Amino acid sequence: MMETQTTGAVGPENALISRGEQPLNLEMPFESLQEFITPNEQFYVRCHFPVPKIDSETWLLRIEGAVRTPIELTYASLRELPTHTIPATVECAGNGRSFLEPKVKGVAWGLGAVGNAHWTGVLLRDVLERAGVDTDAREVILEGADRGEIKETPRPSGEIHYARSVPLEKARRDLLLAFAMNGEPLTPEHGFPLRAVVPGWFGMAAVKWLQRVIVTAKPFHGYYQSIDYTYWHRRGGLPNLVPLGEMQVKAQIARPRTSEVVPAGTTYRVHGAAWGGEEEVVQVEISVDGRRTWNSAALRGEAVKNAWRFWEFQWQTPSESGDRTLVARATDAAGRAQPPQRIADYGTYMINHLLPIHVQVR
Ligand SMILES: Nc1nc2c(c(=O)[nH]1)N[C@H]1C(S)=C(S)[C@@H](COP(=O)(O)O)O[C@H]1N2
Ligand SMILES: [Mo]
């Protein structure tokens, strides 16, 4: 047994957990959360189809649709544009799904379908400027090179590509076309040679293996825009099906983990991360008595736009043995807080209601 702490290296205890091989789905054991920047080997992977093998020498990014001049960019020409590096936390909209009762269909993620990286690439707005966007344009459709057949009905016939759209206003504001993650070229699983990063939005918008950007005046209603990755938003009491977008405010406990045995009569450092969508987290509170009372957690470091914030709370554990329930809750700068109970209209996504972590004090 090694006694020394191996920071950065991925030991067996913090290796990714498999949630499926075909397609490849891997989750970070959230209890191993340690670094503000998630090491690439620990960053979760979510795929709908087989990972495409792409040769960056022959690959092209096409910009077309409602533009003055459709353009094609090679990997080399893309790398000549001004580059930007931004931090961004990316969370799968289904993160935490295994906590839902009753059980639902979909990848059974625990808490680890989330990560925070530094992304390097070019701003979509710089690329759009070269093509010249039509005045009536409203959205950009991002198409990945991966494809396959959908198995569940309703479904389109034959093979389809993974594709999502983003409103033009958001796309122009901060959408990054990233070729590097934490200073390394993207790996095939994370979208080599190019992927979108949509700051503050759930992962489904961060299209990997980008091959086409279609500017459009009409709303896109593709499979992953209108059948999958949607939720019911009430409008005048009427449930209205809308595409998922911005991440919802959430705090997650890394340690203690579910069922952890915590020593009685000591000080235990409860810690984790919290994030909002496009807003920063301003408060994290912890309850160690099943939500009867709440304590403020200390926010660590500085607030970083679009990135999670680490927090901790020194828990004076009870002197007597027994089961305890810990709950964390976050509030963002817009005053949005986590819902106390599950919102059924969210279906199998946006799981940001208060989640209990049951531990044993001994
Ligand atoms: N082309 C393509 N892009 C994709 C996906 C995909 O299956 N195909 N999955 C999306 C989903 S649902 C998530 S959560 C993120 C995950 O990104 P990661 O695998 O790099 O963590 O990629 C998104 N981009
Ligand atoms: Mo996702």
Oligomer: single chain
Structural class: mainly beta
Distance between the termini: 26 Å
Number of strands: 24
CATH level 1 class label of the largest domain:
Alpha Beta
Radius of gyration based on Cα positions: 21 Å
Total domains: 2
CATH domain topology of the largest domain: Sulfite Oxidase, Chain A, domain 2
Strand content: 35-45%
Helix and strand run? EEEEEHEEHEEHEEEEHEEEEEEEEEEE
* CATH homologous superfamily caption of the largest domain: Oxidoreductase, molybdopterin-binding domain
**How would you sum up the major sheet?**
5 strands, mixed
Give the overall shape.
Answer: globular
In CATH terms, what is the architecture of the largest domain? Alpha-Beta Complex
The largest beta-sheet arranges its strands as 5-4-13-8-9
Query: How many helix segments?
Result: 4
Helix content: under 10%
Mean pLDDT: 96
Low-confidence stretches: 1-8
- Ligands (ions, cofactors included): the ligand Nc1nc2c(c(=O)[nH]1)N[C@H]1C(S)=C(S)[C@@H](COP(=O)(O)O)O[C@H]1N2, molybdenum atom
